[in-house]
Design goal:
The chain has 148 residues and is an alpha+beta fold. 34% of the residues lie in helices and 23% in strands. It is built from five helices and five strands. The strands form two sheets. Strands 3-4-5 form a three-stranded antiparallel sheet. Strands 1-2 form a two-stranded antiparallel ribbon. A hairpin with an 8-residue loop joins strand 4 and strand 5.
C-alpha cells in the first residue's frame, strides 16, 4: 500500500510509521535505545575547562630522576589530570607500537612524560588503568553511532 493510500485511510488519531517499504502501526513499534554517549568512571570529575581529574582507588608511587646523577625523587600518584587530545596527540598514538598505545594515549592526555606514565601504568591496579583508558575514550567519543 502506498504512503498516500495509508494517509488517506488513517484517521486523525492514528499514527502510521513507514520504515523502508514496511508499514508499522504505532502499537507494533519496538523501542530501540539509541547508542548512549560514554560516561565517565565514577571516580572521574569533569572540570569546567573540559578536562577530567581521575582519582585512583589505589595510589601508586613512581621514582623519578633527571639522570646524570640527579637526585631521585618519589612521587605518589593519587590522581591524574587528563585533557582532551589534539591532532598531534592522535598521530603519536596511532604511530605507537601496538602494545603501547594505551600508555601513549594516557601520557598525551595527562601531559606527563611518556616514560613516567609507562612506569605508572605498569604499577596501576587494573581498575585504575582501565578507568584512565575510559577517560581517554570519553574524550574521543563522536556521538551516537546511528549518525543522527
Amino acid at each position: 500500500m502506498s504512503l498516500k493510500k495509508m494517509q488517506a485511510q488513517a484517521s486523525d488519531d492514528d499514527v502510521v510509521v513507514v520504515i523502508g517499504d514496511t508499514t508499522v502501526a504505532e502499537d507494533e513499534l519496538v523501542a530501540v535505545e539509541e547508542d548512549a554517549a560514554p560516561e565517565l568512571p565514577k571516580r572521574a570529575q569533569l572540570q569546567p575547562d573540559g578536562s577530567v581529574i581521575l582519582t585512583f582507588r589505589f595510589p601508586r608511587m613512581v621514582k623519578r630522576s633527571a639522570g646524570n646523577g640527579a637526585a631521585v625523587r618519589e612521587e605518589t600518584f593519587e590522581q591524574l589530570h587528563l585533557h582532551r587530545l589534539n591532532g598531534a596527540d592522535m598521530r603519536a598514538i596511532s604511530t605507537a607500537v601496538e602494545g603501547s598505545r594505551a600508555v601513549v594515549a594516557i601520557a598525551k592526555s595527562s601531559r606527563l612524560h611518556e616514560a613516567v606514565i609507562k612506569v605508572l601504568y605498569d604499577k596501576l591496579d587494573g581498575a585504575d588503568a582501565n578507568a584512565a583508558s575510559e577517560v581517554v575514550g570519553y574524550f574521543l567519543d563522536t556521538g551516537r553511532k546511528t549518525g543522527r
